[in-house]
Amino acid sequence: MDLGLKDKVAIVTGSARGLGAATARKLAEEGARVVVTDILREQAEATTAALKADGLQAHCVVADITKADQVQALVDEAAATFGGVHVLVNNAGFPRDKYLVKMSESDWDLVMEVMLKGAFLASRAVMPRMIEQGWGRVINISSRAHFGNPTQANYSAAKAGLIGMAKALSMEQGRYGITVNCVAPGFMETEMVQALPTYETIKERAVQMQPVKRVGQPRDIANAVAFLASDAASFISGEVLHVTGGRYG
């Protein structure tokens, strides 16, 4: 299926590795011109180089998405390099898991700053361009954790907030041909998760709780994002696509 993404310009935040890198690759394989952006310079440059080596269109911008000036510079550079901005994937984020009584203000603030403030700043920065061209896609990477997880009060709150933001923006921006949706991953086999000392235990428990008995892969999320970014999903907005192997609670 032709997803209609050829020559569209896509920014994927937090795309040096993991779900973001897989999403950047999928969009590029569909013909999009992809801006890989992350605070991790070496890994972001390596991901971009790998895309280019495969003949795909990619550009790297190192940026801290919690800083408004850096986010605006990111969007301006994307437009200057590729001629516009059509797709934004708000993927950047990370957990700082602790029981609430042991959670510091820093644990709370860091998660909120990167996931919620970062998505706000990036969405605000791209919106004028999307409005002007009368076409845009914003896709927030939420999580099954928006239902709530123990030790993840900060992460669950941020992921739920991304859904609320998407629903509000879908109502604001639909008149301009802009859709805003969320993808909510379940357990995914990423480098970050594999590095956890309890990885095997977490993996076994997750698979037991899923109707689909396999581990989720980054490409599963990338495929969902590519669909929501496509013309095939042009009448879908304000929705949450759970990619969880059938697990919700």
Quick structural gist:
With 249 residues, the protein is of the alpha/beta class. It has a single domain, classed as 3-Layer(aba) Sandwich (Rossmann fold). 47% of the residues lie in helices and 15% in strands.
Can you write the helix and strand succession as a string? Answer: EHEHEHEHEHEHHHE
Please name the CATH topology: Rossmann fold
Helix count, per DSSP? 8
The name of the CATH superfamily reads NAD(P)-binding Rossmann-like Domain
Mean pLDDT across all amino acids: 96
What general form does the structure show?
globular
Q: What percent strand?
A: 15-25%
In helices, the fraction of residues equals 40-55%
Broad structural category: alpha/beta
Poorly predicted regions are none
For the largest beta sheet, what order do the strands appear in spatially?
Answer: 3-2-1-4-5-6-7
How many β strands by DSSP?
7
How many structural domains in the coordinates? 1
Q: What distance separates the N and C termini?
A: 33 Å
Question: What is the CA-atom radius of gyration, in angstroms?
Answer: 17 Å
Tell me, what is the CATH class? Alpha Beta
**How would you sum up the major sheet?**
7 strands, parallel
CATH architecture: 3-Layer(aba) Sandwich
Keywords: NADP, Oxidoreductase
Family: Belongs to the short-chain dehydrogenases/reductases (SDR) family.
Function: Catalyzes the NADPH-dependent reduction of beta-ketoacyl-ACP substrates to beta-hydroxyacyl-ACP products, the first reductive step in the elongation cycle of fatty acid biosynthesis.
Domain Ketoreductase: 8-186
